[in-house]
Amino acid sequence: MNKEPKRAVTIKDVASEVGVAPSTVSRTLQNHSSISEETKEKVRKAMDKLGYVPNVAARNLAKKYANTIGVVMPFLSLRDRKSNPFYMDAIMAMNQEASKYDVTLAIASGESEKELLDNVQLMYKQKRVDGFILLYTKRDDPILAYLESNAIAHTVIGQPYSYTSTTNIVDNDNQLLGRSATQYLVDRGHKKIFFITHVERENVFQERFYGYQKAISDNKLPLYSHVVLKKPEDYNLFTELMETEKPTALIVIDDMFALRIIQLCNLLGYRVPDDISIVSFNNSIFSTLIHPYITSIDIHTEELGRVAVQQFIRQLNNKHSLQQKVFIQHQLIERETVIDIPKE
């Protein structure tokens, strides 16, 4: 004989157990100040005794909040982006911070820009999220334009190309990062320094390269155009530049790409750091995967994620609050890829 499924405990059951009105139980769930601590304690004990489980979805619907933040990844058609530890480190920190506010995260991703935008729109229209945190910046980004035009709460990790006066921004001072990396090499005696990248359009590259240019100019050293390595012919040009210009140091856009540059230098017969010094950015797991360990600037990814959640919650709780731009400090971590150049 089949047993009937056990009926779920309701607010009315809890109210009957304590001898209070159902509205008292409801306000206890909201930790409302109108209910005394003594009554709240009685209600909570009754909930534990009866095994009452709050219907979070129904409560969120009544409050008109989903208590969920949508986290927007860049569209992931590039293999490097899928394996970049920045995103996982940021999301883990964001999840820890969100849990302090009883908020969860929902990831928005896509293989193309259109697919990503469709997912973002669907998540918001179905009220599955209260707004979004963008883990990237992109020129003419349709997702940021959608969030802005519909007054949807959002925070951006990075420096957006537009809407800077109306968007909550959490970022590093990437110009200062570029200057710091360059000045560190200059102080170690390096005078011929290249800036190496595999991206050109991203704001993070442009800001870091500008900082490099400023430091080179301040020190009255030879200024080189950035070196982009994407296509096979780019690598041939890099080989020629290494032979003709003979740089003593390279600044690389991030740790993951720096590993490739170290391998490339080895293939070309240059030893790191004996023949060529390298500094990169992010201080990710890639910086200590193989020897020589990479000297890298720590951008404090976890702090970027935590502060982004804080800024989003602040905006959600007060839609009339002023937009803020928060800079996270950086730290240069000295390891094994830089040596001093003796003064002549």
The N- to C-terminal Cα distance equals 95 Å
How many strand elements? 12
Query: Please, what is the average pLDDT?
Result: 90
Mind telling me the C-alpha Rg? Answer: 26 Å
Helix content: 40-55%
Q: Helical region count?
A: 13
Question: Any idea of the CATH topology of the largest domain?
Answer: Rossmann fold
Structural class: alpha/beta
Portion in strands: 5-15%
Q: What are its keywords?
A:
344 residues, 434 Repressor (Amino-terminal Domain), Rossmann fold, 3 domains, 6-stranded parallel β-sheet, 12 strands
Q: SSE layout and pairings?
A:
Elements: H1 11-18, H2 22-29, H3 37-50, H4 56-63, E1 68-72, H5 79-83, H6 85-99, E2 104-108, H7 113-125, E3 131-134, H8 142-149, E4 153-157, E5 168-172, H9 174-187, E6 193-197, H10 203-218, E7 227-228, H11 232-245, E8 249-252, H12 255-267, E9 277-281, E10 295-298, H13 301-317, E11 325-328, E12 331-333
Parallel strand pairs: 1-2, 1-3, 3-4, 4-5, 5-11, 6-7, 6-8, 8-9, 9-10
Antiparallel strand pairs: 10-12
General description of the model:
- By secondary structure, this protein is of the alpha/beta class.
- It has three domains: 44 residues, 434 Repressor (Amino-terminal Domain) (Orthogonal Bundle), CATH 1.10.260; 134 residues, Response regulator (Rossmann fold); 126 residues, Response regulator (Rossmann fold), CATH 3.40.50.2300.
- Helix content is 44%, strand content 15%.
- It is built from 13 helices and twelve strands.
- A six-stranded parallel sheet has the order 2-1-3-4-5-11, with helices on both faces.
- Helix 1 packs across helix 2 and helix 1 crosses helix 3.
- The longest helix is centred in the C-terminal third of the chain and has 17 residues.
- It is elongated and about 90 Å long.
- It starts with 10 loop residues before the first helix and ends in an 11-residue tail after the last strand.
